[in-house]
């Protein structure tokens, strides 16, 4: 399923598309909110792996503006709960992710992104 925790790790892999291929942009999406168990320790450990601007922008694309533009130095509980919601509770069920460089469209159906490429795209 496409959650922003996985979206933050995805880039376009079309042959020759090596610049400006991250983050993939959402298009025509259907979003569902699903409650997930809060784990502050997991979030604190995961924060260094996050491309912050990409996460904030993706959240905005999906209608969530709760994250600050800059990653705060102090990772308090209020901030971690907002981060938890954006990373783990927003689910993209339908739509697409589009490469900002080459325009390749990765369809999302039933919460699963199709990241497979045709032979000519590899």
Automatic annotation (TrEMBL):
Pfam families (UniProt xref): Trm112p
Gene3D superfamilies: 2.20.25.10
GO biological process, one term: rRNA (guanine-N7)-methylation
Gene Ontology terms, MF aspect: protein heterodimerization activity
InterPro entries to which the protein is assigned, alphabetical: Trm112 (IPR039127), Trm112-like (IPR005651)
SUPFAM superfamilies referenced in this protein's UniProt entry, alphabetically: Trm112p-like
Subunit structure: Interacts with TRM9.
Annotated PANTHER family: MULTIFUNCTIONAL METHYLTRANSFERASE SUBUNIT TRM112-LIKE PROTEIN, UPF0315 PROTEIN-RELATED
Annotated family: Belongs to the TRM112 family.
Protein name: Trm112p-domain-containing protein
């Amino acid at each position: 399923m496409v959650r922003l925790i996985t979206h933050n790790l995805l880039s376009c892999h079309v042959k020759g598309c090596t610049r400006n291929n991250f983050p993939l942009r959402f298009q025509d999406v259907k979003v569902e909110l699903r409650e997930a168990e809060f784990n502050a320790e997991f979030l604190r450990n995961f924060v260094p792996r996050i491309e912050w601007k990409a996460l904030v922008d993706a959240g905005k694309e999906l209608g969530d503006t709760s994250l600050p533009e800059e990653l705060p130095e102090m990772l308090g509980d209020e901030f971690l709960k907002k981060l938890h919601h954006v990373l783990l509770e927003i689910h993209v069920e339908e739509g697409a992710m589009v490469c900002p460089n080459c325009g390749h469209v990765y369809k999302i159906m039933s919460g699963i992104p199709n990241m497979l490429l045709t032979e000519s795209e590899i």
